[in-house]
Every structure is written in structure tokens, then in C-alpha cells.
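quick one, 156 residues, struct below
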Amino acid sequence: MAKIELKPKDKSRRQKFEPGYIFSINMHNGKFGFGRCISKVSIGHIVEIFNYISKNQEFTTKITEIRMFDPIPIDSYSLIRTSREGDWTVIGKTDNYQPTNIEDIKYTYGSGPKRKLVDIKGNITEISENESKKYPYYSPKGDLDVIEMINNSISK
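---
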């Protein structure tokens, strides 16, 4: 397992965000979710949300191997860089982070016969409209979107 460096919380400045950075999500119910940045893409960043919820913002390295659901694109500018939406805080970084199990993570955008498929590294290919139905839409998620996804996963 890679070494993880934990950082003190500092919301007074813009937060740097890049692959390997670990963050907390204030769920607005007295609990926190946690995730890690996988890659930068044209619409923000792709992140993985860990299958771990806590009553405090402290992070344990034991939970970084299990994803709650497939990685998702987020509006990292509003959520992390400027903190204009939600309460997301960078709390650590995985040294020399190399994402795993990402080969099949893809998203689609466009309409009709001009559909595109984009992978987690930002590579774009054409795809048929019918084939595009297999993939989630390439649209950045905001605070409430992610919290709803987490709550739906917990309730299953």
C-alpha cells in the first residue's frame, strides 16, 4: 500500500487538487465521507469515493482500497479549489499514486450520432448512440449529487 501523508485542515485559501489527493466530504448530517482524486479531465476531476463514513473528519488508511461506487466526475473548481459549494476539504495525499481498476471506467457525451466516449484519462473516441447507453453521462457532479449517491449506496 502507498504511503499517505495527512494534512491539517485549512479552508482559508484555495486548495490544490491533483491525482492522489484525499479529501473529506461534510455530509451535512454530522458525518463525513472520504474520497481520492484519480485524474484531471476537461470538466473537472474524476474521483473515487471510499466505502467509509465517519462521525469525524479523521481519516484512516485502512479504507482506501474499497470504492463505494464507480469513480465519478466532479466540479472540482467549486467543490475543492474555491470551496463555493459544499464543505470538501483536502486532508491528505497518497504518495506516488497510481490508480488501479480504471480500464473500464468511461463516460459518454453528445447527442444522436455524434456521441463521444471519454475515458478516465481524457481520451475521446466516437461511439454509436445505442452503445452509449451502457455508460454514465460525462457531467460533473456537485455536492448534493455526490451526497445523494453516497446516501443511496449506504441505504442498499
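The mean pLDDT is 87.
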